[in-house]
Amino acid sequence: MHKTAVAIRHVHFEDLGIFDAVLSDAGYAVRYHDLDADPFATLDPLEPDLLIVLGGPVGVYETEAYPYLAEECAILATRLAAARPTLGICLGAQQIAKALGADVGPMGHKEIGFGPLRLNDAGRVGPLRHLEGIPVLHWHGDAFQIPDTAENLASTPLCATQGFSLGHHVLALQFHPEVDVTAGIERWLTGHAAELAGAGIDPRVLRTHAAQVGPELREAGQKMLAEWLQGVV
């Protein structure tokens, strides 16, 4: 019997990417919960064996402009209180942090591009060890504080909080290991064109870096998720 995984997707091109095959291999039947297509009222916080909250170009504090963010955070709060397996990426990680009572806000600068993580001792003994020394994709201007009950895992020079875990059932990642850069990142470059222009970032540089790190990053990202799924309780 398949386990179920529901992925909340905020924008279509920020999908599961390389994680899709790993989830399938681990026995999960995956479905997306897309904004507009599916009201949050139809999503049972406790029903999926795994809930994944993906990224998006909004801030968790923008609930007046984007009311669904408050609904999403409430779903996460219920799920986390029940210790149900949950994975968050970028905005999803920030929403997990907020649901756990931690502060989330603007860093005052953007972190966009490829760069390695600085793993701490906790990060080196867990699934993130597969990413050590490999440039991963960063794309954010906000950052979370580490919740009191969670364990910090990694940092970068531009962001001190790149990931945290809570027991064996919650993993929150500020960076984007799910993106299949071997397939190109044109959807990302086009979808975030205004943000890139505002930050003075040349998309040609990102395109070149993606081609350089793609195969290695794909393999490492899939190993990371596979190991985490093996330990999920």
Automatic annotation (TrEMBL):
Annotated signal sequence range: none
Keyword Transferase belongs to the record: yes
Entries under SUPFAM superfamilies matching the protein: Class I glutamine amidotransferase-like
Keyword Transferase on entry: yes
Family matches, as Pfam families: GATase (PF00117)
UniProt GO cellular component terms: cytosol
Keywords per UniProt: Glutamine amidotransferase, Transferase
Positions of the Glutamine amidotransferase domain: 25-186
GO molecular function, one term: transferase activity
PANTHER family: GLUTAMINE AMIDOTRANSFERASE YLR126C-RELATED (PTHR42695:SF5)
Protein name: Glutamine amidotransferase
